## 1
Amino acid sequence: MEELAKEFSIVLIKRKGKFGLGTAYIAGFRRALELNFDLILSMDADFSHQPRSIPDLVEASKIFDVVLGSRYISGGGNNMGGFRLPLSIGANFMAAKLLGIKVNDLTTGFRCYRSGVLRGVGFEWF
C-alpha cells in the first residue's frame, strides 16, 4: 500500500485497528482538512467505483459543492453479485422516493467534496 501511495501521491492513513467505515471517513476528512486540500474525494477500495471516473467528479466539483458517483449508471461499475445489486438498487430507489431526493445512489462512497462543505460539518462531535 505504501508503494501505491507514493506512486499516486496518496495520503495514506494507517490506523491501529478496525473501527468501522464511518470513523475511517472522518479520519480521512480530518487529515485532508488539516492539509488544506480544496477538494476531498472518497471512494471504496474494492473497485465498485471506477478510478477512471475521478476526473469527471473533479470537473463537476467546479460547479457543485458535493458530487456523487453512481454505481448504477452506464460505466459506473460495481462488484455486487447475486441478490446484492437488485437489493441495493431497490433500497436506494425507495430511500430517494421517501426522502424526496433526486439521487440514484444515496449509499455511494464515491464522492467529491469542496473542503468548505466538510469544514461546516463539525467533526469535533465525532
## 2
Amino acid sequence: MKIKEINIDDRPRERLINNGKESLSTNELISIILSTGTKNKNVKEISEELLSKYSIDELKDIEVNNLININGIGKVKAITLIASIELGKRIYMKEPKINKKLSTPKEIYNETKYLFNNLKQEHFYCLYFNTKQELIGKKLLFKGTINNSTIHPREVFKEAYKLSAYSIICLHNHPSNNTFPSKADDDLTYSLIQIGRIHGIPVLDHIIVGDDNYFSYYDNKKI
C-alpha cells in the first residue's frame, strides 16, 4: 500500500500535526525523514526494514555505506537521515561554552565530557585559550587510533594561529574506559609540548577521557 492510499489521519505527517510528535513510532519518524518510498515499497516499509537491521542504539553511529545497502535508501536519503540523527545528538549534547574560564583539568573534563558520549573510536580535540584561560575555540582534529604519526602538529597549531590563542589543551577519549596513557599517548604529548615551546604557544595539558573518569598529564605531573 502506498502512503497516499493510507487514510489521511493515519499518515505520519498528519499524525504529528494532529497528535504531537510523541505519538509517532520510531518507524513513523524515520518515514517522515526519508519522505518517499520506491515503486515497489512505500516509505514505511523501507523504515521497517531499516529498523529490522539496526537498533536505535546502532543508528546513533550508522554510516552512509550501511544505509545505502537497504533497498529504497539511496545516498541522498542516507545523508538526510544521518544529518537528522547528528542534529538531534547536538541539540541534546552540552557544548563547551566559548569565553568560559576553565582553570583546572576537572573543570575542563566536566565541560567537555559530553563530546565523547557513546563514541566507539578515539576522537582527538584541541581546546584553545586566551591569556585569561578563557575558552576561545575547539577543534576535532582526528578520529581513530591516536599516535604520533596520525596527529599532525601543523593542524594543531594552524588553528591556534587562526584564533590568536595563547595556549592549548589537548584531549581525547579511550573507549575502553581505561584512561591510563599509552606509550603512543606519551610520545604524542611530549612531541606537542616541544613544538608548542618552539611556536610560543604552550600545550598546558593533555586529558584522556573515559566514561566517568579522566587522566590529566598536568595533574599527574607528567607535564
## 3
Amino acid sequence: MRVEIQGARKRFGHVVALRGVDVYIPAGGRVALVGPNGSGKSTLIRTLLGLIDYQGSVLLDGRSPYDDRVELASKLAYVPQVAPALSATVDEVVRLISATRALDPEEIARVAALFELDLALAGAQPFKNLSGGMKQKLLLSAAFAARPRLLVLDEPTASLDVRAREQFFSLCNQLDAEVTVLLCSHRVEELRHLATRVIALEDGRVSFDGPAEQYLQHAAAAVVVAHV
C-alpha cells in the first residue's frame, strides 16, 4: 500500500501534534517510525488508521484514510503497544475479529499455533486475564491472518519470548512484497530485522528520513559521545 502525506497538521486544543509532515512510502516499504514521547508518532498513526481527521493531505493508495475509512479498514491491521483490557473471552474476540474481517477463525488459530498459542485451550479465558505475551501473540496472529496491505506495529515484540520473537520475524519476512510495514520501535533488533528506512519525528516534524543503517550509526555514535 502506497502512503502519501503532504503538509499533515493536527492540533488538540493548544497542543500542536503535527506541524506539516511530508512523507512518501512506496508500496512494500519497510519503515520504522521513531521519536520521543510527544513527537507526534501516535497522532500520525491514528491519522493513517482513519481514527482522527487532520489538515493537509494523507492518502493510502490514493484514498483518504479518514473519508474512506470504511472501505480501507479491511486493508489495514494495527497491533498496539498496550493491548485493550477486554472482558470478552478469547473465543469471543476471535469470533468478532473473524466476523468483522470476513476471516476463517481457523486461520487465526493456525497463525497462533506458530506462536505456540493454543486458542482451543485459551478460548474460555477473558482476554484481559491473559499474560502480556499471550495477548501480543493473539493480536499479532489476527493481524497476520488478515493479510493487510498496511501493517502498523507498535513495539510488537515487547512481551514476546525468544522463540515467539523469531517466529514474528519469520512471518514478517514472508509478507507479500506489496505489503507496507510501519514499525514503531526503539529496539535495535527490530529496526535491523524489519526496517530499511527510518523516519524520525520531533516536535511534530520530520527530523530524519533516511536509510535505517545510517540512522543506527548516528544513534550509536550519539551514545558513545554521551558516555565520553
